[in-house]
Amino acid sequence: MPTVLEELARPVIFGRSSSHFTRITRIFAAELGVDYDLRVVRDLMSSNVEDYGGNPALRIPSLQTSRGVWFGALNICRELWRQSGRKPRVVWPEDLDVPVLANAQELASQAMATEVSLVMAKVGGGGDGAHQAKMRTALLNMMAWLEENVGAVLAALPPQRDLSFLEVTLYCLVTHLEFREVLPTAPYSELTRFCQQFATRASVGATAFRFDP
Ligand SMILES: N[C@@H](CCC(=O)N[C@@H](CS)C(=O)NCC(=O)O)C(=O)O
Fold first, then answer.
1. Three-state DSSP class for 62?
2. 138: domain range?
3. Pocket around ligand 1: residues whose beta carbon is below 6 Å from it?
4. Mean pLDDT for back-to-back runs of 10 residues, the chain (213 residues)
5. Is residue 209 assigned to a domain?
6. Which residue of 115, 168, 173, 210 shows the fewest CB atoms closer than 10 Å?
7. Do 114 and 71 share a structural domain?
């Protein structure tokens, strides 16, 4: 049972259980054994910075800690790692020093951002304009590239790693596309195989996508 002081010191993630960028941070927290509270951001159309933990970009996730607030998934994962007593071997984006790995991180992160734009356009009542069509084409292109290269990516990652930011990103991207019905992902057989294998982690089982009540 945590003491009152421990509860006060516990970091707070501003996010949503249905958000793929939030899930990256929650998988990291689970892998790193860092306890946190989830502050659900209910209205992603809000223009109130405070609703997003103070992030002026009006985006989730943010992480509130005793040292200050961290904006964005990568910053948050790094801070969770610093707070963790476990210190597993994590492969970070700056460690990806061959094209296939660096490009996979770029495209997985960009595909997530493109998906956010497509989903938000739908939520916000945006029309089916030419730019929407371009974003969808770009998303399909990126998925095709990732499908073709995921085998080489997994082979090139350092075998002695405990976790990589790239694999967590990729897992959250592919499963979220299906969850939000942006794209059916079954035709991407290599990515599906990767996701099935990655889903055996307890951290994945503990952070399933769902719409917060
Ligand atoms: N650069 C941010 C992007 C976060 C992001 O786009 N989050 C989405 C939810 S998954 C969001 O807040 N969308 C609100 C909006 O687009 O207005 C990160 O890496 O965490």
1. strand
2. 90-203
3. 19-21, 44, 58-61, 72-73, 116, 120
4. 69 98 98 98 97 98 97 98 95 98 98 96 79 95 98 97 98 98 97 98 98 96
5. no
6. 210
7. no
CB 115 within 8 A of CB 20: yes
Whether the Cβ atoms of residue 89 and residue 40 lie closer than 8 Å to each other: no
Instruction: Indicate the DSSP class of residue 90.
Output: E
Q: How far is the CA of 110 from the centre of ligand 1 (A)?
A: 11
Residue 16 CB neighbours (<10 A): 22
| Predicted confidence (pLDDT) per residue in 105-120, tens digit | 999 999 999 999 999 9
Do 104 and 145 lie in a common domain? Answer: yes
Whether 105 and 193 map to the same domain: the answer is: yes
Which of 59, 78, 119, 182 to mutate for ligand 1's pocket (most ligand atoms within 8 Å of CB)?
Answer: 59
**Ligand 1 closest atom vs CA 109:** 19
Residue in the structure block whose two tokens are 């099935």:
196
The structural domain count of the chain equals 2
